[in-house]
Please model this.
Amino acid sequence: MAVRALLVWLTILVLAVANGALREALLTPRLGRNTSLLLSGILLSALVLLVARISVGWLKADSANTSWRVGALWAGLTLVFEFGFGSLVQHKTGSEMLQPYLFRDGNIWPVVLVVILIAPRVCYRVR
Model:
C-alpha cells in the first residue's frame, strides 16, 4: 500500500506544480496575487480530493486507520518536498519558506495541507 500511496502522491505533486504554473502564468497577471493565491489553493484542494476519491479503492485504504496513515504520508511527503526543494533548489531561508503558513495575501496553504491530510479519510468515509 505504501508504494501505491507514494505513486498517488506523485500524481498530486505533478498537479500541484501545474497548478502553480497556471497561477503564475494566467491567474496572477489577470487577478492579482491575493485572488490568484486564494483560487489556486481552492483548486489544488479540489484536485487533491478528486485524486483521493479516484484512488481510494486502488490504494486499498480499507479502514479509517489506513486512510489516516495514507493522509499522514501524503502530508509528510508534501512538507519534506516543500522544505527540501525550497532550501536545496530555491535556496530560500527558513523565514521565506514559512511565509505561506501565515495566511497573508490570500495564501491558504495551511488549509491545503489539512485537505491533503484528511482527503483519504474523507473519501474512504464517503465510499
